[in-house]
Design brief:
alpha/beta; Rossmann fold; seven-stranded mixed sheet; 164 residues; binds magnesium ion; binds adenosine-5'-triphosphate; globular; 5 helices; 7 strands
Length: 164
């Protein structure tokens, strides 16, 4: 694997489930209405854990779990939160019929698991969160900004979390 990392990305290792949740939670203070997080990674890499962390940081009370019978769960914390999981998406057309656009351009924070399935529909500004399985309890997490909004957000996050 190339050690060269694209500029402006954050690439780190989470050593535990708790750490992944905490790193998600620490992103929450920087989020605003309309922000979109696109999560990718194989089964069981920690996408839902990351979402749970973000929700915790946004003061969502109640259970946060992937929607099973629908494609989206809605929560309410400091902001409305739309938790979308496209694992069961039948095809690109369905992305539009369930109203993906309304969430993406809505008034809340939208978190999408299996976001690669809706790649064509993502807005100009979004943060991609890529999770990779390394070992039993170790995951590589790559945060990649798309658009100016997340370029600056990621700088703020980096300062808050990785400098002391
Ligand atoms: N460092 C880590 N970060 C996150 N999860 C971890 C870590 N180490 C171990 N785990 C375990 O990996 C699993 C991650 O589950 P999670 O539901 O978050 O994955 P997912 O990517 O959402 O899967 P799916 O594709 O099925 O939705 C949990 O069982 C968790 O305990
Ligand atoms: Mg999941």
């Amino acid at each position: 694997m190339s050690p060269i990392v694209a500029p402006n990305t954050i690439d780190f290792i989470s050593h535990s489930e708790r750490q992944t949740i905490r790193l998600g939670a620490r992103l929450a203070p920087f989020l605003q209405p309309g922000d979109v997080l696109a999560l990718t990674g194989e089964l069981g890499t920690g996408k839902t854990r990351w979402v749970q962390g973000v929700c915790q940081g946004l003061d969502v009370t109640g259970i946060v779990n992937s929607p099973t019978f629908t494609l989206v769960n809605e929560y309410r914390g400091r902001l409305p939160v739309y938790h979308i999981d496209l694992y069961r998406l039948a095809g690109a057309a369905e992305a539009l019929t369930f109203g993906l656009d309304d969430y993406l351009y809505g008034d809340g924070v939208t978190l999408i698991e299996w976001a690669e399935r809706a790649a064509d529909f993502l807005p100009d500004n979004y943060l991609s969160v890529e999770l990779h399985h390394l070992e039993e309890t170790r995951r590589r997490v790559v945060l990649r900004p798309h658009g100016d909004r997340f370029l600056s957000l990621l700088n703020d996050y980096k300062k808050a979390v990785f400098t002391r």
